[in-house]
Amino acid sequence: MPSKSKKSKTKDRSSKSKVDTTYEDDDWSAETIPAGCRRSESPFESFDDAEGADEYGHWQLDIVGEEIDYYNRIWYEVEWGTWKRKDGTNGTWKNEYIGSRPDIFNSWKRQQATQRRREMKEGLSYEFSTSLDIHNNDTRLRAQAFEEKLEERKKNPLNWEEARLKQLAEEEERGLEDGDDEELVSGVPRKLRALKSRSQPRSSSAWPSQPTPTHRFVSDKVASSSSVARTPASSLTPLPSAGSCPTPLFSSQEPTSSTSRMTLTPESSQASLHSMPLDGTQEIPVFDNLHPRQPPMSEKARGKRPARGVVSTPSSSGSHKRRRLVLSPREVLSDEWSRFGAPITFRNDVDDEEIPPLGPNFRYIERGYVYDDGIPGVDECRDFLLSCSGHDVCGPSRIGNCDCQGESHLDDKTGRVLCAYNKKGLFRFNVLRGVEVKECTPLCKCSPDCPNRVLQRDRDIPLEIFKTLDRGWGVRTKEKLPRGKVLGMYTGLLLRRAKALKVHSAYCFDLDGQESLSDSEDEPLTEDSYSVDSQDIGNWSRFMNHSCDPNTLVYEVVYDQMPSTGMPYLAFAAVRDIPAGEELTFNYKGVNAELEANTPISPKKKKSGGRKVVSSDDEGSFSRECRCGAAKCRGYYV
Ligand SMILES: C[S@@+](CC[C@H](N)C(=O)[O-])C[C@H]1O[C@@H](n2cnc3c(N)ncnc32)[C@H](O)[C@@H]1O
User: Where is the composition biased (Acidic residues) (predicted)?
Assistant: First the structure.
């Protein structure tokens, strides 16, 4: 942990608005901090006129939040008893001094543990998935809760839908009892919604320019105030650490004074946080960058933004009062499914079916598989994964030279290794059937932005799941997509093919793109033939319908499991530019079918890997009437 340099402490305070001097002598020089994370100048404020200490000069304080900064230092968000700024705020950030108040510190930790346990037990708005990058999406404590929940779920599988409805009813009942008119009622517990609002995923369009989110956890107290209606009183001084990225926590209010400063005596700072500092020997930077790239939203504008699920109704006295609303199933589902990437919405202009029919146990997972009993999951591969040495190998300037790709068959005629993606992260269509794209693995030293980690990124395409006229529900993009855009992967339950054949699910996808005819009568299934079924576990891609002239193709990717074990991920990439609003489709014939555009296709041709949709009417012919509507529709799909 960097310490304050003497040099900075003894600096002439009249020029102390240059607060970056605080860390100027240590390793964390400004150059090492990514541009978007650099700390802006931090003005100071004075406590000279502060009142409210007890007879011993001690102040009452509460820890109400915790944040980790760019350098992994933990900062505690503290609210000071009766003291307040003129604007009503009373928060500051503290780090090492907090150790001198073990009682407060321990009570805060206990509070966190309690909340974490509650989330672990009750939280239904998030579910675990084997390869989900929770640390980039959620708070540290939620990550912990997530792992504990995983253990819990192994012991007690949850009937998700039933539990959600039960919780909905409980929330409703509780809300009516306590008459809290600022609450939302939904399948998402209040505390979790509050946390969600303060720990948006990286891809959240609200904060597009933040390169590294800080992991944060907030107490009930702050979480509640930050939920729907934030008041000026919840405004806090931003974290004073260099490189800390702005988070939605902070009020958009301007600092009270750009020249004011907060001071601590050496005794008070080292001995006890309890004592509110009142003389001027040590300076603590407080106000920091207030979302420099985002114009602050005025209280007025904020007030005008209706919170979801809440309506404002005029009361008899003329004032507006919030009325509780139950979120519709469509809104609840949309909230749940949008947690791991860009928004997913639902629309039906055809009939009155509100949401697609999902089984009562349906579980949404954006990435990865859930492995059926007896199938080795990704954890068991970890020790055998390849790894490359990092940015000097697969960084943008040397794309295509990554050791991981070196093990694949992606090379040009001269033997030069080719990367499956270009610098913009677009699929290059240079993969032949039967070749898995090997993205960098969890053991690689490269960053999440490595150009060879495209399928691992958060989904950034907003999608709409909509009712088609004659093919059930489908999915369309809400934004235009360039050719090569990687959309995501097909997720679900990974099971042995022999078992999948008995299941007769319309959502089963075979993973044997490279082993043709392996499920035909001529060639018996092996132990290594797998399928993925998204009947009860899956993501948006389970709604992709077949087209004889599709706009996406399927290719295989591995990154956290061993190559050639027959369990790759099935990724979707746009085969052409796709305008906003167009339905996303692929060829059910299977992996890389579109790459083999010259392959003659006949209804009598045996299935050669890829998706299989079984209909009882077909008596095993595996073909069904196609209603894709494409000009070159073959009239059936397999
Ligand atoms: C994986 S699901 C696709 C999503 C599905 N439409 C739904 O509502 O859940 C596959 C099913 O969609 C329908 N389907 C997909 N593509 C079709 C097509 N081109 N023509 C007719 N039906 C299609 C068939 O009922 C098929 O069994």
Answer: 171-184
Summarize pLDDT for 278-303 with one digit per residue, the tens: 222 222 222 222 222 223 333 333 33
Question: Is the shortest distance between the CB of 546 and ligand 1 below 6 Å?
Answer: yes
What value, to the nearest 5°, has the Cα angle with vertex 152 and ends 146 and 156?
135
Distance from the alpha carbon of residue 545 to the mean position of ligand 1, in angstroms: 5
User: Which pLDDT band holds residue 475 (cuts at 50, 70, 90)?
Assistant: very high
- Tens-place pLDDT, residues 581-621: 999 999 987 665 565 543 333 333 333 334 333 333 333 44
ipTM over 0.95: yes
**Average pLDDT for the chain:** 62
Three-class SS state of 41: coil
Return the ligand 1 atom nearest residue 473 CA.
8
CB 129 within 8 A of CB 143: no
Confidence check: pLDDT of 265 > 50:
no
Q: Which of 523, 521, 525 is nearest to 498 (CA)?
A: 525
CA distances from 528 to 131, 405, 498, 518, 561 (A): 21, 24, 10, 10, 14
What is the predicted pLDDT for the residue at 416? 62
**Angle, alpha carbons 407-409-411 (nearest 5°):** 105
Pairwise CA distance, residues 137 & 156, whole Å: 25
Closest CA to 232 of 247, 250, 217: 250
Q: What one-character-per-residue DSSP string does 62-109 give? A: EEEEEEE-TTS-EEEEEEESS---TTS--EEEE-GGGGG-HHHHHHHH
The pLDDT of residue 443 is above 60: yes
For 154, 190, 379, 459, 526, the CA distances from 375, given in Å and listed in that order, are 15, 37, 11, 27, 13
Q: Give the H or E element holding residue 39.
A: none
Cβ 94 under 6 angstroms from ligand 1: no
Residue with token string 């050669």: 608
List, for residues 523-543, the tens digit of each pLDDT value.
556 677 889 999 999 999 999
* Cα radius of gyration (the chain): 28
Closest-CA residue, ligand 1 atom 13, reads: 471
DSSP string computed for 170-201:
HHHHHHHHHT-TT--BSSS-HHHHHHHHHS--
Q: How far apart are the first and last CA of the chain?
A: 60
User: What confidence score (pLDDT) does residue 104 get?
Assistant: 76
Q: How many residues does the chain have?
A: 638
Euclidean distance between CA atoms 540 and 489, whole angstroms: 9
Whole-angstrom distance, CA of residue 65 vs CA of residue 77: 5
Query: C-alpha distances in angstroms, 40 versus 2, 18, 24, 562?
Result: 18, 9, 14, 45
Rounded CA separation 607/287 (Å)? 65
DSSP three-state, residue 531: strand
* Whole-angstrom distance, CA of residue 329 vs CA of residue 49: 53
Distance, CA of 94 to CA of 77 (rounded, Å): 6
Choice from 353, 532, 536, 546 to test ligand 1 binding pocket (greatest atom count within 8 A of CB): 546
Question: How many angstroms is it from 588 CA to the middle of ligand 1?
Answer: 10
Q: Would you say residue 201 has pLDDT above 70?
A: no
CA atoms within 13 A on the CB side of 447: 7
Whether 47 and 63 have beta carbons less than 8 Å apart is answered as: no
Taking the CA of residue 542 as reference, the ligand 1 atom at the shortest distance is 1
**Count of CB atoms within 10 A of residue 113's CB?**
12
